[in-house]
Amino acid sequence: MIIFFILKFKDIKINKVYFLKLNYDICHINYKKKKMKDLLDILKYVLPSIIVMGTSYYLLKLFFNQEEKKRDTEIKKAGYNVITPIRLQAYERVVLFIERISPESLIFRVFKQEYTAMQLQTALIINIRDEFEHNFSQQVYLSTVSWELVRNAKEDMIKLINTAASKLNDNATATDLSQKIFELSLGEKLATKKALECLKNEIRTNF
Q1: What range does the domain containing 134 cover?
Q2: Which of 1, 91, 142, 195 could crosslink 149 through cysteines, CB 3.0-4.6 Å?
Q3: Radius of gyration of the CA atoms of the chain, in A
Q4: 65 in a domain, yes or no?
């Protein structure tokens, strides 16, 4: 009888422990469900706000980027409108320089009947160098190729004048030097002509 009672008591105790554990599990599951429900409720209100904020941020960023590009374009356009006439003027000045140092134009401006060949030689070279220095800053607006041709044209003309002078005697006149310069200039394509062609091509292309 006592043994039966003990066994029965153990069964009751086991059942009670099982019941308590089961009850704990149910409570725990219910708690998790409640937490999940609360989380879903929070997300239900927060998620749309996050989406709206994200969309707004993207649209604002897109807008500001477009405005920045638009502003940069306007600045470049304004700069282009300012710099284009200056560049064109620079090309025109350099073209004029090349034409002024060509043999015909140069001798016509500098020649004086009373000059000796040496005096004319000196005057011609000084004139070329002065003209070049006066237009030196224009290289900023020209291409590297065209400015190099301009510089070569200047050096070529000085070389031509010196070569012509070296072929004359000490008593030669300015007229003798002029004729010798014209004679030598007819024998080859001068660097002044090459530079002039390049400058005119760049003007047609860029403006």
Answers
A1: 90-206
A2: 195
A3: 47
A4: no
